[in-house]
């Protein structure tokens, strides 16, 4: 327990430093969630960068997410207000439903029964969505969307009687090994932006990431294209998403890589490059389905 809390403290200090660094480099979109338990540190970093004149609040685009234990309509705003308090912000730019699965309300992020099984909750996601619409009307969130939704779940929201605002985006795992082409096509047809997390694959040291997966950034095809353009494999991976109309999220604590990831606007991939990268798809997830 002590070691865990020490590791969490180190991680939180790193988060604060990374946010300040990223803002200095030029990043303006910060993506987090209630569940990540790092919003106090992010809030501190944002406040410092506003205080020293680097940015104004309006320059930043901040995204947070509603956790699954707050899906009952009367709890939705509570979760958002909790995030806002930690962030020291009066609104977020984007509020997402984190996962399309409701869990039993309470203190635990993953409520379990005596056998160690997750305790789910029966909540109609359409009523959760209506509560998000109210958060937008109250000015607590400028835009609202979803995360980890499939086409069927998106349609359920889109076809909801009396829908006031449709989801502006759907944030999902997406990279050349899982290019989500069908979901992307569906989202484009509904004018919903697809946002990619794990856009560079994922860190195999994380406990919820599958251990036997190949490392995306070591892919030979990806590396050949990177060498041709004199770019890094990460830059090519991010550029690939931009050219197919996907917003890509990349996480780094490293200043050099933060700068490199920001240089994806300086080159273009050819149609042949794009075709080769499309060919890498193997419907492979880094994130464990059951985690």
UniProtKB/TrEMBL annotation:
<dbReference type="GO" id="GO:0016491">
    <property type="term" value="F:oxidoreductase activity"/>
</dbReference>
<feature type="active site" description="Proton donor">
    <location>
        <position position="36"/>
    </location>
</feature>
<keyword id="KW-0560">Oxidoreductase</keyword>
<protein>
    <recommendedName>
        <fullName>NADP-dependent oxidoreductase domain-containing protein</fullName>
    </recommendedName>
</protein>
<dbReference type="InterPro" id="IPR020471">
    <property type="entry name" value="AKR"/>
</dbReference>
<comment type="similarity">
    <text>Belongs to the aldo/keto reductase family.</text>
</comment>
<dbReference type="Pfam" id="PF00248">
    <property type="entry name" value="Aldo_ket_red"/>
</dbReference>
<dbReference type="InterPro" id="IPR023210">
    <property type="entry name" value="NADP_OxRdtase_dom"/>
</dbReference>
<dbReference type="InterPro" id="IPR044482">
    <property type="entry name" value="AKR1C"/>
</dbReference>
<dbReference type="InterPro" id="IPR036812">
    <property type="entry name" value="NAD(P)_OxRdtase_dom_sf"/>
</dbReference>
<feature type="domain" description="NADP-dependent oxidoreductase">
    <location>
        <begin position="14"/>
        <end position="281"/>
    </location>
</feature>
<dbReference type="InterPro" id="IPR018170">
    <property type="entry name" value="Aldo/ket_reductase_CS"/>
</dbReference>
<feature type="site" description="Lowers pKa of active site Tyr">
    <location>
        <position position="65"/>
    </location>
</feature>
<feature type="binding site">
    <location>
        <position position="98"/>
    </location>
    <ligand>
        <name>substrate</name>
    </ligand>
</feature>
<keyword id="KW-0521">NADP</keyword>
